[in-house]
Amino acid sequence: MKNKLISIICPCYNEEQVLGLFAKRITAILESTNRTYEIIFVNDGSKDNTLAKAKYLQKSNPNICVVNLSRNFGKEAALTAGLDISTGEVVIPIDADLQDPPELILEFLKEWEKGYDVVLAKRVDRSSDSWAKKKSAELFYKIHNMMAHVDIPENVGDYRLMTRRVVNAIQELPENQRFMKGIFSWVGFKTSVIEYKRESRQAGHTSFNGWKLWNFALDGITGFSTAPLRIWLYIGALISASAFIYGSVIFFKTIIQGVDVPGYASMFTSILFLGGIQLIGIGVIGEYVGRMYMEAKRRPVYIIDEVSNPAVEEARDSND
Ligand code: UDP
Ligand code: MG
């Protein structure tokens, strides 16, 4: 079967309200490029009628492929499923909520024609996000890029263009805890960046609240850096050195001024301080052990319930 040129991957979780609008806008853009394309809707265990809606849209456009995961696996897994199924020469992951303007695809293609393997879309204006979300994102990029060997470009989401060889490289990464932003950056390749203004969600609700984002950030940092483990070496060294200096001070003070018994407060504080520091250290090690445990199980990243792809079915029928 002839490979499609452009594969759009759209992970959907409870997006029934916006899916029709999304399909309309993106189809118009894709048709205008005069290239063959496929739109892969990955239904990530939605609790509403997203699946039915996607199948309905498929009826009027055979370039739509609907992948239904067996339950909600999370956006990273849904994206991975989409990448695995895609056949295009270039692959573009995009959110269903129209926060990533489909019109940008035309610019992506222009950059790709110049010879870039990756074209990133950088948000120059995040005014559609809340103050807390903007600040926490800023802090996350700062901490992550300080610790990890490979920087994640700031304010760049999953919306991007990748060529087939980049997708192949991503598929080589065997980990099943997939922090896609990190994975995308890790594989490298010649990259171009274009800027855009992020819109606000057209309908439905965000599924990333504070706690989920915090865990997402932890996944990102622990997945791509061992600095949080190594830092304990230096914290330990610093505390030991201060203890040695403080011990020497007490020693000489005792020789000169005699025994000084009071010290209840300082002793109690240092016990609590050291206890706290040790527990944090154990917590960090625990975080990594937990990740190793999950990774050691070698479970699949996602499970597919069903794929309905009219193009493939058509080809199969004509081969029979
Ligand atoms: N999404 C998903 N699985 C999830 C959560 C979200 O596939 O468990 C999809 C969602 O349908 C959307 C994209 O990931 O297409 C981004 O989600 P959302 O808009 O909620 O995140 P935000 O833009 O607020 O970061
Ligand atoms: Mg969104």
TrEMBL record:
It is a multi-pass membrane protein. Residues 7-168 form the Glycosyltransferase 2-like domain. The keyword Glycosyltransferase applies. InterPro entries: Glyco_trans_2-like, Glycosyltransferase_2, Nucleotide-diphossugar_trans. The keyword Transmembrane helix applies. The chain crosses the membrane at residues 231-252, 264-289. Pfam families: Glycos_transf_2. It is found in: Membrane. Keywords: Glycosyltransferase, Membrane, Transferase, Transmembrane, Transmembrane helix. PANTHER family: PROPHAGE BACTOPRENOL GLUCOSYL TRANSFERASE HOMOLOG, UNDECAPRENYL-PHOSPHATE 4-DEOXY-4-FORMAMIDO-L-ARABINOSE TRANSFERASE-RELATED. This is Glycosyltransferase family 2 protein. It comes from Vibrio plantisponsor. The lineage of its organism: Bacteria, Pseudomonadati, Pseudomonadota, Gammaproteobacteria, Vibrionales.
